[in-house]
Amino acid sequence: MKRGKRPLPGRLRVIEGSYRADRHGMLTADDVAAQERPIKPAWMRGSESEAWDRYIEPCGWLDQFREPAAIAFCQLWVEFKTWPARFPASKHAQLRAYMSDLALLGRGRRTP
Q: Which of 2, 81, 84, 91 is 20 to 30 A from 27, comparing alpha carbons?
């Protein structure tokens, strides 16, 4: 197991404009092309659906393998927005972990 921060996928580097072939290797057409996107479940309604449309739908780098994490993120987000005072620290850590896994946190302290 490697230490340190996980490397970003090549598709995400292309989207954010930081991809360099000499550092990150050559991308194939499959890496750049849109992968199969996560599908919003039919049962998702109300605030969960709004969270999906706001946070998950615009993310072109997500593939179908991140769908369960995206669903769990939307459910936790609604729970947080509904009653933030009763949202325990353990769920807050879980929410941040989902955001990190889905690359929704951004690059942190990077200057534009």
A: 2
Largest CA distance in the chain: 48
* Per-residue pLDDT tens over the stretch 55-64: 999 887 788 8
Four-point Cα dihedral 73, 46, 35, 15, nearest 10:
-70
Token pair of 11 as six digits: 């598709």
Query: If we measure between CA atoms, which residue out of 60, 59, 52, 107 comes closest to residue 76?
Result: 52
Could you tell me the two tokens for 33? 């092309």
Structure token pair of residue 108: 């942190």
How many helices and strands, by DSSP H and E, does the chain display?
A: 6, 0
Q: Name the least confident of 3-7, 60-64, 66-70.
A: 3-7
DSSP 17-53: T---HHHH-PPPHHHHS--PPP---TT--HHHHHHII
Q: Which residues contact 45 (CB under 8 A, 6 or more apart)?
A: none
